[in-house]
Q: What sequence folds into this?
């Protein structure tokens, strides 16, 4: 475990500053430590533009900034035809662009982005929407090319993506506004009707002239008509649509209560007799709409981030045209083209490597974090990343038939979640039946006993049994639980995720990037006898300084020696150089043996062994491992203590999987599974009657996440994985997982208490109403008080 | 008490105007981002120049 006192944390992103580095930026007159060149560049840019009060305003730490690419990757966007789907013309060269931004953590980010962009003379208007994490910017493309706009956002540490205004996203925006309109009308109407309601109830108690009672009833009727016809129409529509298909949902008693209370009150107003319930109608509608609005707000935010094939591929690629290379948009590449690959590129299409070579990171498909060395003639897949090396690729199929596209289409196959009957709807079905039976009985009895009172007493039974508290019982508790979990670092997206979580008996973890951080770390150093460890490490660090391979990261915390000459990086294999007229090499055993023929065989212990040798002798063996998340062990232990099975499901075929099983005490493991096999495994578990919660991060996990009963994505997950998840971990920690299970249990308890209260209130009130003993003011107060009790009870979830 | 016959309709008209204004504000996008607006009051517009050693947290 880390102790916070003796390690420095990056002022920008809060990560631990690796010892031996000296990145810093002057902020607020003081030099602040930085963890990497990326954060340093961003912090210096912010301070240098006079925007450093950003650091005072922010409430969350920033994400770690990746180093800026040496060249502008967005040049293809400068041609208008390449960006027509997110840049629209206003007049002349003035345009409006819509972008989604990654890395926005709090309101101060929106301030920073708006200020920094607004300072450019070409920008006339910039607005960041924090809920949607979207930027709308109006600018002159003659003064500020589109690629330059992207580059500026990147330099501030945010990750811009074109926002393709899909039909779905547009509809959601409209839906959200329509919901807010209904809520606004219901809210203002509730205040008006409530005002008259107080006068009418007071009149019932102390007496009121019939003339004024009539006036207030008529005005209330007018306003309540607007509420019922406009704000409450969604309940009627939903209840009717479900009823037609034979389903009894919670909206049915809600619609019945609103409709009947309204009709009875209107009837009483016209005939100037009986009771009116206009205030209860307006208040009930408003509270229900408010709960639904807040519930929807959370879900819609993530919907906008849904990924399509295009956003997983690079914007532009270099295609061979005659003798030269030309930058073209990736989407215009088709089978038969030859494209140039350079180190760091995402491979734009499936194809065969013609020449060159290097190391390809195929984590997207295999979950294996160590790149694979490739040589000419080998097949490469779109969406994988060339870590080092380079070459040219002959494209052999269109984007639509690539392996990546096939994986995306698996989403629709895996995407049907097990149907979950919601507790509220199950209760609603019985409730509606019971109320209707009781009302019929009451009507029959009074018809014989006193036919003049039969109608009014039957109506009062229906109104008093108004399921206000019952309808609020579930959404109020879920909203409170969602808010509390969000503060603890877990964003719930799925509607039913908490209920689904309670059923899960097994938690399945992906390995790389989920249980581990997806970064290599030195586990062990074995020196060759004539060297000490510090010298070997310093030399290794100096050699790896030039590498772009993930192995280089494992040495980034060491101060390198100086004086290396003739450094040669051999893609996918290793690095060699000369130090004091002596040849040295680091890399795979086979590669190092070329420099040092006397190299002994690699240790047989598990792990990834890297050799360091001079031309005469072995200097050291380094065993590298993926870093386990600091709280992975605690989380697994806590989950097992809840009686859950914890399992590993990974695409990585190496022995790292079994070792992890032993280290963490996992119950089972499936090693080296392809994305298809992963999906099958989840289906098998489900077929055996075990509901499954899945935790994952990668592209290859997305179909599995979609199929699991409840899916979690870690914060660093790909957008695609996030879009399939029911919940997203917001920090670096796995601990909120366990809290989610605890919260789901507490939430269910609260929902049950709420329902018990609502049902017993009805059990008490209905007989009294059936006997004709409940005056309307008592019914109104009772209904409001029981709803309020439910809301207050739910708020208890926010404590502790 | 006859004044009620004037005052109540006036109140209803006010309510209608308030609803109209609110709907206009919603349609013009002023409620699209409820997360940011709460913070905006804390963010000054006129801090273009770095201040000397004044901010420490």
A:
């Amino acid at each position: 475990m880390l102790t916070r006192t003796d390690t420095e944390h990056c002022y920008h992103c809060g990560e631990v500053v690796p010892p031996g580095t000296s990145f810093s930026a002057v902020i607020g007159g003081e030099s602040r430590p930085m963890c990497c060149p990326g954060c340093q560049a961003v912090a210096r840019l912010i301070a240098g533009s006079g925007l450093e009060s950003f650091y005072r305003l922010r409430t969350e730490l920033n994400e770690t900034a990746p180093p800026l690419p040496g060249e502008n990757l967005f040049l293809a966007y400068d041609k208008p035809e390449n960006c027509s789907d997110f840049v629209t013309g206003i007049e002349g060269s003035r345009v409006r662009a819509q972008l989604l931004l990654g890395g926005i953590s709090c309101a101060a980010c929106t301030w920073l982005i708006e200020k920094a962009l607004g300072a450019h003379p070409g920008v006339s208007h910039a607005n960041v929407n924090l809920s949607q994490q979207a930027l709308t910017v109006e600018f002159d493309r003659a003064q500020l090319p589109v690629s330059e706009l992207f580059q500026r956002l990147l330099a501030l540490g945010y990750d811009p993506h074109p926002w393709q205004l899909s039909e779905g996203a547009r509809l959601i925006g409209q839906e959200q506004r329509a919901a807010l309109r209904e809520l606004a009308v219901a809210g203002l109407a509730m205040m008006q009707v409530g005002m008259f309601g107080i006068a009418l109830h007071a009149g019932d108690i102390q007496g009121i002239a019939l003339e004024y009672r009539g006036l207030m009833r008529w005005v209330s009727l007018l306003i309540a008509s607007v509420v019922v016809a406009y704000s409450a129409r969604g309940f009627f529509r939903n209840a009717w649509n479900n009823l037609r298909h034979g389903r009894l949902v919670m909206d049915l008693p809600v619609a019945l209560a609103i409709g009947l209370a309204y009709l009875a009150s209107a009837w009483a107003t016209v005939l100037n007799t009986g009771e009116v319930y206009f205030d209860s109608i307006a208040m009930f509608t408003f509270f229900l709409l408010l709960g639904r609005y807040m519930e929807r707000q959370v879900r819609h935010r993530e919907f906008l981030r849904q990924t399509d094939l295009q956003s997983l591929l690079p914007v532009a690629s270099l295609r061979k045209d005659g003798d030269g290379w030309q930058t073209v948009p990736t989407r215009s590449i088709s089978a038969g083209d030859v494209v140039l690959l350079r180190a760091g590129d995402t491979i734009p299409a499936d194809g065969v490597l013609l020449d060159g070579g290097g190391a390809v990171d195929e984590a997207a498909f295999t979950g294996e974090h160590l790149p694979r060395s490739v040589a000419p003639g080998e097949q490469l897949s779109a969406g994988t990343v060339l870590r080092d090396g380079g070459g040219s690729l002959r494209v052999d199929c269109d984007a639509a038939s690539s392996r990546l596209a096939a994986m995306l289409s698996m989403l629709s196959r895996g995407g049907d979640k097990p149907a979950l009957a919601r507790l509220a709807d199950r209760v609603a079905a019985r409730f509606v039946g019971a109320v209707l039976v009781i009302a019929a009985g009451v009507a029959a009895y009074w018809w014989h006993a006193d036919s003049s009172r039969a109608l009014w007493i039957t109506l009062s039974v229906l109104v008093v049994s108004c399921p206000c508290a019952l309808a609020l019982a579930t959404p109020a508790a879920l909203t409170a639980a969602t808010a509390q979990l969000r503060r603890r670092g877990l964003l719930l997206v799925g509607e039913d995720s908490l209920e689904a979580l309670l059923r899960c008996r097994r938690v399945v973890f992906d390995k790389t990037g989920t249980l581990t951080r997806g970064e290599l770390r030195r586990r062990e150093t074995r020196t060759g006898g004539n060297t000490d460890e510090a010298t070997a490490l310093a030399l290794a660090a100096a050699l790896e300084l030039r590498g772009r391979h993930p192995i280089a990261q494992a040495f980034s915390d060491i101060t390198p020696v100086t004086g290396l000459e003739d450094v040669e990086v051999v893609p996918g294999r290793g690095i060699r150089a000369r130090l004091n007229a002596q040849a040295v090499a680091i890399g795979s055993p086979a590669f190092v043996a070329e420099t040092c023929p006397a190299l002994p065989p690699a240790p047989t212990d598990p792990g990834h062994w890297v050799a360091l040798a001079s031309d005469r002798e072995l200097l050291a063996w380094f065993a590298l491992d993926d870093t386990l998340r600091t709280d992975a062990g605690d989380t697994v232990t806590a989950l097992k203590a809840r009686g859950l099975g914890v399992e590993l499901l990974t695409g990585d075929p190496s022995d790292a999987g079994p070792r992890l099983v032993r280290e963490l005490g996992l119950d089972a493991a499936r090693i080296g599974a392809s994305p298809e096999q992963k999906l099958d495994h989840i289906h098998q578990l489900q077929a055996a009657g075990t509901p499954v919660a899945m935790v994952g991060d990668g592209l290859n996990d997305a179909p599995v996440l979609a199929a699991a009963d409840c899916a979690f994505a870690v914060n660093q997950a790909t957008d695609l994985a996030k879009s399939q998840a029911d919940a997203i971990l917001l920090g670096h920690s796995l601990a909120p997982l366990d809290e989610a299970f605890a919260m789901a249990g507490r939430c269910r308890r609260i929902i049950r208490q709420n329902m018990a209260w609502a049902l017993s209130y009805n059990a008490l009130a209905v007989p009294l109403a059936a006997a004709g003993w409940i005056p309307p003011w008592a019914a109104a107060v009772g209904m409001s008080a029981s709803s309020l009790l439910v809301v207050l009870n739910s708020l208890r979830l926010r404590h502790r | 008490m006859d004044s009620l016959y004037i005052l109540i309709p006036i109140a209803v008209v006010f309510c209608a105007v308030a609803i109209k204004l609110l709907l206009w504000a919603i349609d013009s996008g002023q409620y699209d981002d409820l997360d940011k607006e709460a913070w905006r009051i804390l963010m000054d517009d006129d801090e273009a120049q770095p201040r000397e050693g004044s901010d420490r947290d």
